[in-house]
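Private note to self, pasted from the team thread so I don't lose it. Backbone tokens:
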């Protein structure tokens, strides 16, 4: 049985990375609300730009 308090997070994403010669691991991960056509249009629900933010995001949805 699924509780009515269960939170479902369904996202679709778009990514981009910086140059390999960059001294810092840089990337952009844009999370959009999931849609059946799997489009990444409109305003992202969340933008993640480093590994610390990415780890925090994964911990928040557990």
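Design output:
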């Amino acid at each position: 049985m699924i509780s009515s308090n269960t939170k479902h997070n369904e996202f679709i994403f778009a990514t981009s990375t910086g140059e390999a010669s960059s001294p810092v691991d840089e990337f952009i991960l844009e999370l959009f609300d999931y849609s059946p056509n799997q489009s990444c249009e409109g305003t992202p629900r969340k933008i993640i730009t480093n590994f610390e933010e990415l780890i925090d995001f994964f911990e928040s949805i557990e």
